[in-house]
Amino acid sequence: MGFSLDNYVDVATRLQLAHAKYPEIRIQETHREVIEMPDKTCFIRCTVTVWRDANDPIPAVATACEIYPGRTPYTKTSENEVGFTSALGRALGYMGFAINKSIASRDEIEAAQSRQPTARLASVTPINDVEVPFPEEGPAKVYPSSKQLGMMRGLANGKGIKGDDLKAYCCNVLGRTINSTNDLSKQDISKVIDALQVTGELEN
């Protein structure tokens, strides 16, 4: 007996229900990146954020992975779209829409069924592009490149500033508290690099 999709609701149905309940709903394709697994298989990991309205303090966030490159005529060159659709379906599922039988959407299951083994490997290209859903409230956060992060840590290590000391140094330079250096934006790291190049001494 073949696998039945009867127990799965498609993303379009969940989205229609969400719009009916939350007319001011906001949906953002928040982040995507290419992930290389230990066996050299590559995936595009897509993250979607859903706000019930502009004042929603706890939006729903969900992630889904789509194999890259796609292995069917329908997914090849459309990996981002397939991944974001699956992620949206999961986010809406987390919000309680049409989950009486499964969190996974019909679209997600169909995408999973299309994946077949392949000997061809994809090149890995990191993608970091994050936007804010309400631009009128402030500028978009621009994430630093790996080269920029490496330069900051290299300068800090050369001056004996590591671990929690580096975090404390960043807090002092930026004038605010951060949980880790991963919270820093591209502009933040530029300020820290400038400070390290000038003094490199821990400020108190």
Share of residues in helices: 25-40%
Structural class: alpha+beta
Radius of gyration: 21 Å
Global geometry: flat
Number of beta strands: 3
Strand content: 5-15%
Q: Which residue ranges are poorly predicted, with pLDDT under 50 across at least 5 consecutive positions?
A: 1-5, 123-130, 200-204
Main beta sheet: strand number and arrangement?
Answer: 3 strands, antiparallel
> If you average the pLDDT, what whole number results?
77
Along the chain, the helix and strand elements come as HEEEHHHHH
Strand order, main sheet: write it out. 1-2-3
Question: Total number of helical segments?
Answer: 6
Distance between the termini: 70 Å
Can you put this structure into words, describing what you see?
The chain is of the alpha+beta class. It has helices at residues 11-21, 79-94, 106-113, 146-158, 163-174, 186-198; strands at 26-36, 42-51, 60-67. A 3-stranded antiparallel β-sheet has the order 1-2-3, covered by helices on one side. Helix 1 (11-21) packs across helix 2. Mean pLDDT is 77; it is low at 1-5, 123-130 and 200-204.
SSE topology sketch:
Blueprint: H1 11-21, E1 26-36, E2 42-51, E3 60-67, H2 79-94, H3 106-113, H4 146-158, H5 163-174, H6 186-198
Antiparallel strand pairs: 1-2, 2-3
Helix pairs in contact: 1-2, 4-6, 5-6
What does this entry show, briefly?
The chain has 204 residues and is an alpha+beta fold. Helices cover 36% and strands 14% of the residues.
Top keywords for this entry?
single chain; 204 residues; alpha+beta; three-stranded antiparallel sheet; 3 strands; 36% helix; disordered C terminus
